[in-house]
Known about the structure:
The chain is of the alpha+beta class. The protein folds into three domains: 83 residues, Uridine Diphospho-n-acetylenolpyruvylglucosamine Reductase, domain 2; 120 residues, Uridine Diphospho-n-acetylenolpyruvylglucosamine Reductase, domain 3 (2-Layer Sandwich), CATH 3.30.465; 74 residues, UDP-N-acetylenolpyruvoylglucosamine reductase, C-terminal domain (Uridine Diphospho-n-acetylenolpyruvylglucosamine Reductase, domain 1). It has nine helices and 21 strands. The strands form seven sheets. Strands 1, 2, 3, 4 and 6 form a five-stranded mixed sheet that branches. Helix 1 packs antiparallel against helix 3. It is globular, with a radius of gyration of 20 Å. The protein starts with a helix and ends with a helix. The protein binds flavin-adenine dinucleotide. The site of flavin-adenine dinucleotide has 31 residues, from strand 4, helix 5 and strand 10.
Amino acid sequence: MTQIEEIAARLGVRAERGRRFAELTSLRVGGAIDWVITPDTEEQAAAIVHELDNAGIGWRPLGSGSNVLADDGDHHYVVLSLSNMKGEVHIDGELVSVSAGYSLPRLCIDVARAGLSGIEGLGGIPGTVGGALWMNAGAYGHEIGTVTENVRVAREGKVVEIPGESIQWNYRHTSFADGELLLGATLRLEKDDPEKIKARMDDAKSKRLATQPHGARSAGCFFKNPPASTIGTGKMIDEMGMKGQRRGSAVVSPVHANFIVTEGEDARAEDALALAEEIRERVRREQGIELEYEVELWRANPGTQINEDEQTQMNADQSGKEQ
Ligand SMILES: Cc1cc2nc3c(=O)[nH]c(=O)nc-3n(C[C@H](O)[C@H](O)[C@H](O)COP(=O)(O)OP(=O)(O)OC[C@H]3O[C@@H](n4cnc5c(N)ncnc54)[C@H](O)[C@@H]3O)c2cc1C
């Protein structure tokens, strides 16, 4: 039995080999993963990462994989898959407590029905609550950070609550430290008429359907909007005539130019990356603007666990996303 199997067995958590990022991310690309560990509860998740840290084993948390582009190599670290850690939604007046693995679109429906407003603009964002917190997901005038009362995180094997106001909630980026595992959150919403909330949610949904590809394999907007630019990145790429541009299995969506979609059973991350770099190069040359990735780029590691160089590279990738 390996050390990872031993830890998982002792804590009663499923650990699997032979999974690929292509199965676990919405772009449906990416290589093999050494181990996928799937906790069911916040307590289990906190205990596991503590054990992995103590054993010096590298790990990364994954929600629904709707904002991650993992490369095609073999990823020699543990992926902590949180999509089973759903728990139950607890509503107490205007406070809503939810686990990180809960679906964000599902949560938006639940709270709208309960007559609670504040996240209806987020209804169409695929993914988990944990992923939304990590990225400070936002759309149509709402951002999750602005309604977050507190966040539960894993510290020394325990579930610890930290106040939402101690976190910096920036544009698709937060001040959570690398290696922080988010277990759940309490949101503070506002009472409103359920019919009115639903109407606003439906409105956001129809805008989304009218402007974004649906049913396609994407990770949402690939690049952030440049802070100083008067036009959005999608419009900029569209005006350069790049809609429909292809690199192997990756295409610039003909519907929304800031979406890269993948096609085919054997789609490759390297195609999506090459296309993304081609876009960045043209925007740099023609507009003098350095586009920053909104999707997270996850690189495979050559060693048996995340080594220092790789971690530094990952950190560099992360900080490269800051605005
Ligand atoms: C069609 C489409 C439309 C989209 N539209 C929007 C939009 O309008 N607005 C928007 O903001 N985003 C949008 N996105 C991007 C994506 O849906 C969001 O970023 C979402 O919040 C990611 O959630 P996830 O569970 O899939 O996270 P993942 O993709 O699994 O992970 C994203 C990052 O969060 C980290 N993470 C995930 N869970 C945890 C955790 N529990 N603890 C610590 N770190 C964690 C991961 O390590 C990774 O770094 C869109 C994506 C798609 C495919």
